[in-house]
């Protein structure tokens, strides 16, 4: 009952949108190529990655906070059109 130890066998990442931690499998990895945010759907793209929940709300939050340029250590602004195509858009 006591001493619930946190075993980090499955790596957790922080969503750059809502700032909640999730298992990596539940998050979309994003890398930057040129001046574009690209979804790393297969987990094979090299370079620094940012993680976001594949939800329109989290993507919007991340964009509004300019979280991608910060997380990816690049000068913004970044094109996030490809992410929107994967994640979807928030209803107007
Ligand atoms: Zn999130």
TrEMBL record:
Residues of the YlxR domain: 13-77
Coiled coil (residue ranges): none
InterPro entries tied to this protein: YlxR (IPR037465), YlxR-like_sf (IPR035931), YlxR_dom (IPR007393)
SUPFAM superfamilies the record matches: YlxR-like
UniProt xrefs under Gene3D superfamilies: YlxR-like
Pfam families: YlxR
Record protein name field: YlxR family protein
Species this chain originates from: Streptomyces litchfieldiae
